[in-house]
Amino acid sequence: MNNHVCHVINTLSTGGAEHYVVNLSNFLNSNGMRASIIAGEPQTLRDKVAPGVHVETLELHPGANKSLLKYIRNLRSTCKELVSYFRREQVTVVHTHLAASALPAWIAAKICGIPVFHSKMHAVKISSLYERILFGSRLPLIFITRYVVFSNFMRDEAHKYWHAPFHKIFISSIGVDTSSFIYDPSSKLASRQALNICMTAHVILVVARLHPDKDVELAIRAARYLNDPSAVLIIVGDGQERAKLEELVRDLPGQTQVRFLGHTNDPRSAYASADALLQTSRSPNIGTVVLEAMATGLPVLIAYRNEEERFMAMDTFDNQPLGHIAHATPALIAECLESFFAELDRDKNFRHIRRDFIRNRHDKQLAFSNLADCYRSHYRSGAIINPAIK
């Protein structure tokens, strides 16, 4: 039986949602399912898409100008093109990922009688105004067959704010390749030598796009507050805030070193060099970086700003002692890091536990296989499978 899953997303730029779509599509393609992606420009990740995955270029939203008038004006023609593609290519499941590109895909899928899956990529707090209005209107309930979420917290948000019935919510994972991201203590020496960092240094790692939502400024302020000449904060990533953050490093007092490594396509060496990963993102839902770090056994410290973010952080660790959380102030983050560095030997006992947790809950092969089964079963029978909900 033909199974063609078509992913519709704003663009193929370098964000987490875009990486997820590419990885999932490549997996489906390599496991006997037809997969395609419809996205607008930019398509930075296009060279990461497997040869068997077709990419269709279509402007689905008004872009940086965010013109609602242009969006509405283009809606009819966009829907028409999507209907034509879905019918011509015999699409059996439409999977949407971001609100701006979702509505025309939903309408086209409804016209074609195709089931729709939609991923909840962001916490409600940092969703766009358009997304909050769209989902708050209950209109999506007419179109969406299954809601795909990546944590219990996101499931509860989908139910509370999007009015999604629990039986339509599928808890999955963005997935991590646990065969590539491994616990390998022997690689630490080579990684530190490559970065010219001594083995006795305390290395704090941030892997993030340098964007206000990631709040890398907080990580820098915490590192400087730590004021530890034996500590190094390594920042892997690039973006619009880099110049501002580099100036902040020059201006702030403190003995902790701060180094910008820029963007890398393979962060495994950075993980191997680190003693801890620091995540300072606002609304810290489970992301690729945290999963990759934990798959290598690395402890993670998540900063939270309010009770909602504290619950999100705890949910990342499944309420188990797998990592650390701290209130998002430089002093309290520094205090937590200082305490952790004092007990580095004790933490080694948890590294295999973290890796086992990721392998059993977030392994890409497991997560994507389960989602693929859900696609197939729904298309085959039209029935909705009730996932096990904790």
Layout of helices and strands, plus pairs?
Layout: E1 4-11, H1 16-30, E2 34-40, E3 54-57, H2 68-88, E4 93-96, H3 99-112, E5 116-119, H4 129-136, H5 140-143, E6 146-149, H6 152-161, E7 169-171, H7 187-195, E8 202-207, H8 216-226, E9 231-236, H9 242-251, E10 257-262, H10 268-273, E11 276-279, H11 288-295, E12 300-304, H12 307-316, E13 324-327, H13 330-341, H14 344-347, H15 351-361, H16 364-381
Helix pairs in contact: 2-3, 8-13
Written description of the protein model:
The protein has helices at 16-30, 68-88, 99-112, 129-136, 140-143, 152-161, 187-195, 216-226, 242-251, 268-273, 288-295, 307-316, 330-341, 344-347, 351-361, 364-381; strands at 4-11, 34-40, 54-57, 93-96, 116-119, 146-149, 169-171, 202-207, 231-236, 257-262, 276-279, 300-304, 324-327. α8 (216-226) crosses α13 (330-341). It is globular, with a radius of gyration of 22 Å. The chain has two domains: 4-175 and 363-381, Rossmann fold (3-Layer(aba) Sandwich); 187-361, Rossmann fold, CATH 3.40.50. It has a seven-stranded parallel sheet, with helices on both faces. A six-stranded parallel sheet has the order 10-9-8-11-12-13, with helices on both faces. It has 390 residues and is an alpha/beta fold.
